[in-house]
Give the backbone structure.
Amino acid sequence: MRIRRGFVLAAAVLTSALVVVGCARDTGTSQPAGGGGTNAGACARNSAPSAPGGSSASPAPALPNADASGLKVGLAFDIGGRGDASFNDAAGAGLDRAISELGLAKANTKELTAGPNESEDAAATRLRQLASEGYNPVIAVGFKYATALKTVAAESPNTQFAIVDDSSVELPNVTPLVFAEEQGSFLVGVAAALKTQTCKIGFVGGVEQPLIQKFQAGYVQGAKAVAPDIQVDVDYLTPAGDFTGFSDPAKGQVVATGQLDGGADVIYHAAGASGQGVFQAVKAAGKSAIGVDSDQYNIPGLADVKDVIITSMLKRVDVAVFDYINAAAAGNLSTLPDTFDLKVDGVGYATSGGKVDDIKAQLDAYKAAIISGAISVETTPTSS
């Protein structure tokens, strides 16, 4: 595998006549197949694994709906909040489902949203506000709340908190809601390798930090399980600590355009709202894209680009938020899984649009192999 490191400056005139200069970090490129991987059919592809017995997903039996009418639920969104067509919208959908199915009164909910690159004090103030106003439980959406939550949860021992995508806060009143993103990403990597016509695919991450690197690691491993010589271009919109990479569609469009110009014909993004720009670039090029977190093919705000979305890596934040509220209402948080993984249908891939129907058998064979343990998916990118 050939590794490229360094910042890439790109400029493009977008359809809105906005000129954007994007700064992206390219953190890994595999060796191209077939002298650059630009010829249709250049990839040599492995057969799917034989499905081991007893390895289908076995989600826990659905628990009866508890009565949440007595709860006040606070939701602290990550950057972008509702309307990001991704991670935050999934969390919001879980809250909406609790209102619809558990008797939670909408008037007894409150939503607050993080700002880009805000201070830890600002994040703590948001959580502290929800707790002080009597919201219990309070759900922090995103790992960036971890430091603030550790402080605020210790200050408010009688308030129950949950945090999505972090397990570092070890306090009795904090419940982690974490996912095996690498497993779902492996499956969409398989899809990309089976669908590419150039033997070159791309990954666009929002911020270069460990959580998003899990998406990258699984995607690359899945693609190479199918086509060992496939080339995978990897770019991050911003370095660790700069969270604007999750809310900059213009930069996403610029970086994705660079990958497409370089020969990639399938691009997977894990970039939050910036993924909307990735889709626009793919649409303009007439190539294929893979969504993330939600089934992005079915998101109304993405209707103009849905035809290029062949699948999405499903990260069931909506299920985790709903299940947490249900468990809190029942007074029994022990019913929640330690990790929302393939085995409990906490992650997966979408089939909306029918664009992966022809490869579903292969995808499900790899899924079964992961569930059985025959395939172990890496959580960090390999450097060689």
